[in-house]
Specification:
Length: about 425
């Protein structure tokens, strides 16, 4: 069972030797891509390869291929394949060998813990804001580094951020369903925030959920609406079949899910990572080729390592949570069908009466815009922003401050 590293400890180097996870899948996918490129050359030259219609240059390329010497073409493509694979491997090795200093988290403190869940107080003045991350990855993405840390930035700009850190499931949490996480962990965490900031000038806390954490936050909002001032939903999914969207990787896993859960007692991290790989099989190859070309001592390389460590340090899911999310949310689409219940209550977004902000990234592959837009429509009175970024870049990318941090701050300040 995985455990998150306590603050200040040297990360486990053995974990990085196996990263990016699942390493074997990333490598085999890259090699299959290269080999298929070579195998497709004869079909591409004789015209029997069917090109996608949107490739406007396909006709010109086919004409050029017919006039190439077959042997020279094969050698040129093989050399390019070898160069790309070599660059990817160089990037992977460089990432694995980076010396990682102890993680320093100045300006925050743990103020409550129950089981493996803890509440972190970032300090500051102004409206208290409770951030709820996903259960799938660690909470540190919301305060990743000194220059890409949303919560630390909010603390410096008139807010009092708190962060729920779920941790990896322990013995008790392995038996949890989503109802347990919301009613037995998230709701008590809100109680602690209320007790700490119960002064006339502070006001009621706002709730901010990121990705899956947005669904958890919305469920809590419906249970505790009188205790909150507003709800912000960052890249939060709702309709998992919107726009005809299907999830082949999830559908493929579904028949074997119970066997996996019985064998491991939870859904392993590498299975979850494999599902994310299926969204963009070539992403790891592109990322690590890019990393190989960076200045290893530069700020961009340091940010890459911090982000990849977060991505590859995923958290396993309790068995019942995995069933609810993969089979219920993705498979049966029971959120959009109003069949999800928390605390005995149907989770119906139309019941949210508080001010709501929804951030829908324009280039999100993890939560398609149509899925998040369905939640906006279901609530009916959202302020919507559309960061020009992806699911993760919205929070930690170069444009994060202008596209998300500042609009979120202005909206929170207006709740006072």
């Amino acid at each position: 069972m995985e455990r998150q590293q306590p603050d200040g400890l040297q990360p486990n180097q053995a974990q990085h030797i196996l990263s990016p996870r699942p390493l074997a899948l990333h490598l085999s996918t890259a090699m299959a891509s290269m080999m298929s490129s070579l195998a497709a050359l004869p079909s591409a030259r004789n015209g029997s390869l069917h090109w996608q219609l949107e490739l406007a240059a396909a006709a010109d390329l086919m004409a050029d291929l017919r006039h190439c010497d077959p042997g020279e073409l094969f050698q040129a493509v093989a050399a390019e394949c070898q160069a790309r694979l070599g660059a990817m491997m160089a990037g992977v090795r460089a990432y694995q060998e980076v010396r990682r200093p102890p993680r320093r988290c100045a300006g925050r403190r743990e103020v409550w813990r129950q089981g493996t869940t803890r509440l972190l107080d970032y300090g500051g003045d102004g409206l208290p804001v409770l951030f709820v991350p996903s259960l799938v990855n660690g909470a540190q993405v919301l305060d990743l580094t000194a220059d890409r840390g949303l919560l630390s930035w909010l603390r410096r700009h008139g807010h009092r951020p708190f962060l729920v850190d779920w941790g990896a499931p322990g013995e008790a949490e392995l038996k949890f369903a989503l109802d347990d996480y919301i009613c037995r962990r998230l709701s008590p965490a809100l109680d602690v925030v209320q007790d700490m900031v119960r002064t006339p000038d502070r006001g009621r806390p706002a709730l901010v959920g990121y990705c899956m954490g947005g669904d958890l936050a919305m469920a809590l909002t419906l249970l505790r609406q009188d205790d909150l001032s507003g709800l912000a939903l960052l890249a939060t999914p709702w309709d998992f079949h919107a726009g005809g969207q299907r999830w082949p990787a999830v559908e493929t896993l579904a028949p074997a899910l119970d066997t996996l859960l019985q064998g491991f007692g939870a859904l392993p991290v590498d299975v979850l990572q494999a599902l994310f790989v299926a969204l963009d099989p070539g992403l790891a190859q592109r990322k690590f080729r890019h990393f190989a070309a960076l200045d290893p001592d530069g700020a961009e390389a340091a940010h890459f390592v911090a982000l990849e460590d977060w991505v590859n340090g995923g958290v396993l899911l309790a068995a019942q949570v995995a069933r609810e999310c993969l089979l219920g949310w993705y498979g049966e689409n029971n959120l959009a069908r109003r069949q999800w219940r928390i605390g005995g209550q149907v989770v119906d977004p139309a019941g949210v009466c508080l001010p709501v902000l929804a951030a829908i990234p324009e280039n999100d592959r993890i939560v398609p815009a149509a899925s998040a837009k369905a939640l906006v429509d279901a609530i009916g009175h959202c302020t919507v922003i559309k960061p020009a970024a992806g699911h993760i870049g919205m929070v930690v990318g170069r444009r994060g401050k202008a596209d998300l941090w500042q609009p979120l701050s202005r909206w929170l300040l207006a709740l006072k």
